[in-house]
Structure formats: C-alpha cells, structure tokens
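Final report, closing paragraph on structural work. Over the funding period we assembled a curated collection of sequence-structure pairs, and we close with a single example.
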Amino acid sequence: MKKQILLFASVLFSVITFAQVQPSFGVRGGFTSSTIKGETVKSLNSLVDFTDGMLTTNSHTGFFGGVYASLPLSEQLSFEPALYYSQKGYEMRGYLGIKGVEFLGANAKAQLNTNYVDLPLVLKGNFSGFQVSYLASADLKTTAGVLGINLLNNKMDVTNNFNRWDAAITGGIGYQFSNGLNFTASYDHGLSKIDVNKSFNSYNRAFKVGIGFKF
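Its predicted structure, as stored:
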C-alpha cells in the first residue's frame, strides 16, 4: 500500500509538471453515512460477545472535512486529489452477553467508530476515481439500558484490531457555482479487508454529502 501511495504521488507530480497547469485549491466538509459489508457480525464478535439472538445493523453517521486541489487537464476534464478526515463505522443492536446484566436483552447496542485519513484521487468528468485511506483511530462503545435508564456505557480503544490501510473505488456527482461554492455527493466502495489479520470478508462502505468552496 505504501508503494501505491508513492506511485500516486509520482503520477500527480508528473501530471502537474507535464501539463504545466495552474491548480486551484479549496476546502470541503459534510456528513457521512457508513457501514461495513460482509462478515460484519464475525468482525464485531472478535471484540464483543453477541449471542445467537436477534441482531440488527444500522448505518453510522459522522462527518468528513479537509482540503482538495483541482488540476484542469482539458476544458471537460480535471484531476482532483484531496485529503479528508473521515468518520466511519457501523452499529449493531441485539442481545449482548455481558455478565451480571444478562436481563438487558435486546436493549444493548455496540457502536464501532473508525476515524480515517482519506486520500481520494478523482478524475472529474466521468465521476470515478481511486481512494487510499489510513486508519487514525478506532473505538468501540457499548451501551445498554432498560426503561430509559442507562445501565452500561463502556468505551475502549480497538485501533490495533483493524487494518491501518484501506483502498476504495470512489465515485459521485457535484455542482460548481461560479462564485466557488460547490456541492458533492459520493460513494466509497472499500476493497481492503478491515480486520488486522484480514481474516473476515468485511469492507468499508460510505456515502458522503459535502459542501465546499474553491479559492
């Protein structure tokens, strides 16, 4: 993965040098709605003890923000690398096997929060591109309660249980106003297994909706 990042950096430098373009820069931020597809239950079971009871999965809502550059290649085509801090993860609800509070049953919830540094490399015009991500941190929060009373609220660092590097195909649409204001919507389809041992077929999936400004 590190070799791929160096390759992307070399290609970016070559594009700027060869095309002799004047890049423009901007900032962008917005909301993310993410989940993990594949063997998600097995992935979380390695951290928390779920029973064979009813389980439901939910998307995890977070935010992203960062900077980007726009390198025009022609009148209709441009290359747009970016650097974003992005929150991802997912949630599960069901019967959580916690000693001493077994009666909580389906009121238990586990929420996985992963924080990535995303490096999307997008070719604007056909709305497709490639993205490299680095996991900055990950934590697992478990909560449970009855009758509106919170009886469990635990948070632990699980960063070392996950693969630090992720790769994804990303694509989307956007609109640029003449004053520099722009809106984007994109989808990231993860390609790398997220657990540290790469034992489970679990991958990141995320939607991003953002607002930005190009200087």
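The CA atoms of residues 142 and 169 lie 31 Å apart. Residues 2-19 form the longest helix (18 residues). We thank the funder for supporting this effort.
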